[in-house]
Amino acid sequence: MNILVIGNGGREHAIIAALSKSPKVDKIYCMKGNAGIAELAELVNVNYCDLNAVGDWVDSHPDVKYTVIAPDDPLALGLADELEKRGHRVFGPNKRAAEIESSKAFAKALMKKYGIPTAKYETFENYDDALCYVRNGKFPVVLKADGLALGKGVLICETLEDAEKGLAQIMLDKAFGDAGNKVVVEEFLTGKEFTPGEEVSVLAFTDGKTIVPMIASCDHKRAYDGDKGLNTGGMGTFTPCPFYDKETADEVMNKIMLPTVAAMNAEGRPFKGVLYFGLMRTPDGMKVVEYNARFGDPETQVVLPMLKTDLFEIFQAITDERLSDINIEWEEGACVCVVLASGGYPVKYEKGKEITIGDLDDGVFLYHAGTKRENGILKTDGGRVIGVCAKGKTVEEAREKAYANVKKISFDKMHYRTDIGIKYNK
Ligand code: AMP
Ligand code: GLY
Fold first, then answer.
1. DSSP string of 175-207?
2. Which of 85, 126, 190, 223 has its CA at 20 to 30 Å from residue 237's CA atom?
C-alpha cells in the first residue's frame, strides 16, 4: 500500500523509518518532509495546514490509501475530519478530540469534571480578572496560553511582578497570538519537599475503546544544561524512565489513562490515535501536566526504535477500532536522543548553514528535523536540526554512544545539551 505522512520533523522521520519496515507499506509520500526523510519517502511540497490543498492532493492520488497526520496544528485545524469527509482513511484524532491538546482550558475542565489528577487552576478570558486572581494567589504560579504555542506558551512565574508581565505578554501583547485569548492560571506542582517534580512522557495508542501505553520516556524541555533557559520543543530524550515502575504505571492506567478515554467518550469526543500524557510525580501521586493529541517530539525518536511490532498494523487496527486484537511488543534496553539545535533556538536563529557528518558508529542513527538539501549540500533549515540517537543496554551506554557521535557532526553555531539522559539516572 502507498501511504502519506504529514509533517516535517524528527518525529515524522522516526515514524516513517518505522513504517518503512512494514512489509505492507510500499511507497511513502511525506508532506512536506526534510532532507533525512527524503531518503525514505517522496517529498510533497503542499502546505499541510491548508486543509483543502491536502484534500485535493489526496483526492488526486488514488494510489494513496492511508494518511498519517503527525503534527498538532493540522490535527487542531481538523485535517482528519476533512480527509474522512472525502472518504479517505486516516490516522489521527478528529478536531473535537484533538482539542484535548489544542485547548488547555478544555483539557483542564475535562480533568476537573472527571476527577483526573492535575494541578488546581482557573481559566480567564479577561486580563483584569486574571490579574486580580494572581494578585491574591500563591507563588510560583504557572500561566498557560490556552491554545497551541509550539511548546512555548507556558510561563512559570516566581513573583507577582513576573506574573503581571506574563499575563500582559499572553493576553494583551498576544505574544502567542490567538492562543492567548484565554489563559489558564495553575498551581505550581512540585515533588517532595518542594524539589522539582520528576516528569515523564507516556505515549499511548488508543482506538477509543482500548488504550495501550508505549514504553515511558523523559524529555529535556529547557534549552540549556541543568534545565536552565527557555522551554523548547524538546532538546533530547531517553527511555526507559527509571522511576516509572510497574506500580506507577498501574496507578497511571487506573487513575489517568482509562478515565481519560472514558471521559472523551462521555463528552462525545472519542479519541483515536496517539494520546500523549505529560506526567509529574508529586507527593499526592502522579498528575497530568499536559495532554498532547499526537506522538511527542523528540520522545518518538527514542520510543519507536524500540518497537518490535509492525507500526503500520497498529495504525490500521486503531483506524478499524480493533486495537485489542494486537499484541504490542518492545525491545529490552535503552535509547537516547540528543538534539542538535541552531544557536539561538528557541528565540532567534539562522538557517542555511552547511552540515557535515562524519562516519557514524554502527547502531547510531540520525533523525532529521530542520534540514534541507540544496544543490546536493545538506543545510540547516530550522531550530531543531538533527536528533542523534543510539541504543544500549543501559541509558548510560546509549548516552555515551550518542555523544561520541554528536562530535562527528558540525554546523556553524551548533548547540546541544551535554546532560541528556543524566537526570533521574544518577
Ligand atoms: P507543558 O507545555 O504544559 O508541558 O509545560 C512545560 C513545562 O512546564 C512542563 O514540562 C513542566 O516542567 C512545567 N510545568 C507546566 N505546568 C506546571 C505546573 N503546574 N507545575 C510545575 N511545573 C509545570
Ligand atoms: N516533547 C514534547 C512534545 O512533543 O510536546
1. TTGGGGSSEEEEEPP-SGGGSPPEEEEEEEEE-
2. 190
CA of 154 to the centre of ligand 1 (A): 7
pLDDT confidence tier of residue 275, bands split at 50, 70 and 90: very high
Region of residue 285 (phi > 0: left; psi between -120 and 50: alpha; otherwise: beta): left
Quote the CA–CA distance of 134 and 156 in Å, as a whole number: 12
Q: Which of 386, 385, 380 is nearest to 402 (CA)?
A: 386
- pLDDT digit string (tens) for 389-421? 999 999 999 999 999 999 999 999 999 999 999
Helix (H) or strand (E) holding 400, with range, is helix 395-406
Provide the grid cell at 414: 551548533
Task: Please list every protein residue whose CB sits less than 6 Å from any atom of ligand 1.
Answer: 119, 142, 151, 154, 186, 188-189, 199, 221, 231, 278, 289-290
- Confidence check: pLDDT of 159 > 90: yes
Instruction: Judge if pTM exceeds 0.90.
Output: yes
Q: Which residues partner with 273 through β-bridges?
A: 206
Strands 334-342 and 384-392: antiparallel
Which ligand neighbours the alpha carbon of 151 most closely?
A: 1
Contact criterion met (CB below 8 Å) for 36 and 368:
yes
Pocket probe mutation, ligand 1, options 227, 289, 297, max atoms within 8 Å of Cβ: 289
Closest alpha carbon to 301 in 210, 212, 234, 250: 234
Which residue is it, cell 535503552?
334
C-beta separation of 422 from 229 below 8 A: no
CA–CA dist 63, 66 (Å, integer): 9
Distance in angstroms (rounded) separating the CA atoms of residues 275 and 258? 12
Cell numbers at residue 187, please?
A: 498551581
